[in-house]
Every structure is written in C-alpha cells, then in structure tokens.
Amino acid sequence: MEASEDQIYVIIFATIFLGGIMSTFVISMVFIHRQRQAQNRQKMDQIKSEHEKTLLNIENEIQQETLTYIGRELHDNIGQLLSLAKLNFGSIKPEKQSEGKEILSQAIQEVRGLSKQLNLDWVETLSINEFVAQQLARIQNTGFCETSLEADFELLDLPKDQKLVLIRVIQESLNNAIKHASPETIQIRIHESGNVKRILIKDDGRGFDASQDSQGSGMFNLRKRMETIGGQFELSSAIGKGTEITLTLPN
Amino acid sequence: MMDSRFYQIFTDWYLIAISFLLIVGIFYFLKLPNHLKVSKIFWFPFLILVFTVIYENMGGYLKYNFEFNKLVNAALGNEENPTYNVWLFNIGYYQIGTILYLFLIKNWLVPSKKKYINWLVFVFIVLVIAIQLLGIEPIYTSQPIIFAIGANMILVGSGLYFIGLITEDNYLNSNPFKLLSFWQMTFILFTYSLTYINSVALLYLWNINKELAISLMQINRVLGVINLSLLVLWVASPKLTNIFETEPYYHGSI
C-alpha cells in the first residue's frame, strides 16, 4: 500500500511538474516574442529612416543636377538669346526690332520651361519613358553620341519614391557612361518578361573590369538605392566591350 | 428508475457545459455569412466542437445503455470488462481527436512548416493501426502508448507553432494575447501535458485509487471545456473583431 501511495505522489508531482514546464515554456515564448517584436520594430524604424534618408539624398541630387542644367541653359541658351535680342533692339531697322521681339518671346518660353524644373513637381507628371526620352534627347543634342529608346510599354503610375529612385539611377548611369565610357551609342530598352519589368541601359563604350567594382564605388550606391525600393541593379561590363546595366523594377 | 439514471448521467456538469457550448457554437455558426461558413477557419473548429460533444454524450449514453455497450465490447473482443466505454474515448479523443487537433494546428503554421503536420498525421495513423493490429494495445482497453505518441506529436505541432510565433514577421507584428490561435495552442499544450501522466497511468490509478483517478480526470474535463470554449470563440470571432486580431497564417489545405 505504501508503494502505491508513493506512486500516486509521483503521478501527482509529475503532472504538476509537466504543467510547470509548459507554463514556463509558454511564458518564455511570450517573453521572447516581445523581445523580438521590439527588435523587429527597431529594425523596421531603421529601414524606414534609411529609406527616407535615401529619398531625401536622391531629391537633393536631382535638384542639384537640375540646377546645373538650368545654370548651363541660362548661360548657353537664354543668355545668348537675350544678347541677341539686345543687339536687335539696338538696331533702328523695324525688321530687326520685330526679330528682337521674337527672340525675346523665345527667351521667355525657355525661362518658363526652366522655371518648371526648379521644384520636383515634374517628377509626378512625367512618366519614366518621357524622362528617359528627354535625357537621351539632351545627350543626342550635345552631339556626344547616338541614342535610342525602345519601350514595350509606358511606365506609368509608379509611386513617387520608386520614380525618384529610378530617375536618379538612370540619370547617374547615363552620367557615368558619358563621363567614363566615351560611347558611340547609348541604348535604353524598357521591356517586360513574365511579370518582371526591366530597364536595360547599354553603351558600346570603353567598358571596365566589373570584378573590380568595390563597395566605395558609385555602382554600389546605385545597387543599394534600387534595393531600397525592392528592385535590383545588375551590371555587366568588360574592357572594350561596353557596359550593360539592368534595372529590375519592384513588383 | 431508468429515468433517474439517465438524469444522473446527463446532468453531469461537464456534459451540460459542453452541450451548452455546442448550442452557442451552432448559433454563431448559423449566423456566419455563407462565404465564411465554407471557410475552414470556421467550419473546422466547429467540426471539432460537434465531434467532441457527440462522442462525450455518446460516452454518457453508453453508461446508461449498458446492453449496447456490452454488445460493442463483445464485438471488439472485450468480454472481461463489459462496462468499459474506453473504446469510444480511444477512438474519439486519443485517435481522431489528436488528428483533428493536429490539422487545427496546421492552419496556424507558416506554409513551409505545414508539411511536417502531414507527416506527423501520416506516421500517427500508421502507428495507431500497427499497434492495434499487432494487439499491443487493444481498442477496448486504455491505450497509453497511443496517447503518448499522439501527445508528443501535439507537442511537436505546438513547438512548430511557437517557433513561428517568435520568428515570423507576421506573428511578430501581432499581439499574441489578441490571437485566438495563441490561446488555443496554449490550452491544447496544457491539456495534453497535464493529462499526460494521468492518461498514461489511467488504468493503474483506476484500480489502485479510483477517487484520485476521477479527481485527476477533472483536470481533463476543465481543460476540455476551456478548449471547446475557444473553438466556440473561433466560430464567433467575426463578431469579436475588437477583441481578437486576424490570424497571420491560415491559408493552405487541410
């Protein structure tokens, strides 16, 4: 009888023990969940703040680029137009006076066009296809190289942050091609395979050894920026064989 | 005379409580919109509720209708203890109940972990059939080995759920105290762990100290009522959106 009483105590204690273990387990899980939740929130806040910082930098860079462009336009284009208008108004000939007026109207149009670019509102109204076409036209107009754009579809309705990043990455990729590659042609293709949308920027310039691409390079920043919007940046290049950049858009 | 026995059996607090829960469950299930009625998030807990209440009441009926119980026991090969209705609980609670709870847990797991539950169920069914066919644990007597295997599988399922709770972003973004799955999982865990020793040593305790066996079985009953109440809450959850959060993972087949 004593043995069986002992066994009964063992059963009771074992039950209490198992219950205790389970309680500890559940409480520990809740505790770990809370800790990880806090860490997760901190991580999310950090990612969000980095994303905002990146966007702010991109906005600043686009504005800087725009100001440089405006400065150049003021000096090379509007400045010239105004000088010409001044010369024409200085003449006593009526046809020169009317030519001066026309030149002045043209200068006013140019100033209006430039003023629209001073803030970033144009980002919202312009599609990526229009932006790319503008950029390529500018390059072609300088006579630097030939350009071409092929688009299977119009990239519309992108969120502003994605649009800003894409604009900046395309702008920077084109700047790099102009500054370092001396290409004869620059091609941009906007295409879709499956559900994946891509922008391909290809030049036939000098190219470089892509394996030398270090973390400090501009390419690293471009890759990181594409990743902040959930996209991808891929680069392939070889010396003498040009450079190909593929921007994969987020789904 | 017969009526007083019937009255005595079916006025047991446990049977009254679970029958009441079934009525509440049916009420809320009927009030569900049609598209939710066909969603397994609602019909599956309801199925477990209906199944549990039916076999528990059936257990009471077997105590009342002794002749029928004796007939079934004899058919199963048990002529030694014709009053035992343990065969019903072996099938209902230890076997089908365990499989149903494993599938319930599967609903809350991340898609990549659902396959483990399929394997657990498959292995459990194979082992249950093998153990019974080999005569290791006949169906008409207490089945501690089968219960222990089932309870361990439930514990593994619980482990998978809690791992998801502390690693998956969707769960980390939720408040566990507002997740019905957390409470259900916690009480399933408690039910199987607190009744583990009791169920394994049931026959032994029944012979040695019947009073203690009945007292320990009360743990089973209290936790059973809590589990069924939570199943009712699942069915009623569309009306309780201010109390409970939406479950992060409930997609995937049963």
Helix/strand/pairing category of chain A: alpha+beta
Encode the helix/strand succession of chain A as letters: HHHHEHEEHEE
Instruction: Give start-end ranges of low-pLDDT stretches of chain B.
Output: none
How many beta strands in the DSSP annotation of chain B? Answer: 0
What is the percentage of strand-forming residues of chain B?
Answer: under 5%
Low-confidence stretches of chain A: none
The SSE string of chain B, one letter per element, is: HHHHHHHHHHHHH
Beta strand count of chain A = 5
| Oligomer status | heterodimer
Rough outline of chain A:
elongated
Greatest chain-chain interface? Answer: A-B, 21 and 26 residues
Task: Report the total helices of chain A.
Answer: 6
The biggest beta sheet of chain B reads: none
- The name of the CATH architecture of the domain at 120-251 in chain A is 2-Layer Sandwich
| Continuous helix count of chain B | 13
Protein name (chain B): Histidine kinase N-terminal 7TM region domain-containing protein
Transmembrane segments (chain B): 12-30, 42-64, 84-104, 116-139, 145-166, 187-206, 212-236
Keywords (chain B): Membrane, Transmembrane, Transmembrane helix
Catalytic activity (chain A): ATP + protein L-histidine = ADP + protein N-phospho-L-histidine
Describe this structure in words.
The complex is a heterodimer of chains A (251) and B (254). With 251 residues, chain A is of the alpha+beta class. Chain A has a domain at 120-251: Heat Shock Protein 90 (2-Layer Sandwich), CATH 3.30.565. Chain A is built from 6 helices and 5 strands. The longest helix of chain A is centred in the first third of the chain and has 89 residues, at 2-90. By secondary structure, chain B is mainly alpha-helical. Chain B is built from 13 helices and no strands. In chain B, helix 7 packs antiparallel against helix 8, helix 8 (144-167) packs antiparallel against helix 10 and helix 10 runs antiparallel to helix 13. Chain B is globular, with a radius of gyration of 19 Å. Chain B starts with a helix and ends in an 18-residue tail after the last helix. Chain A: It catalyses: ATP + protein L-histidine = ADP + protein N-phospho-L-histidine. Chain A: This is Oxygen sensor histidine kinase NreB. Chain A: The chain crosses the membrane at residues 6-32.
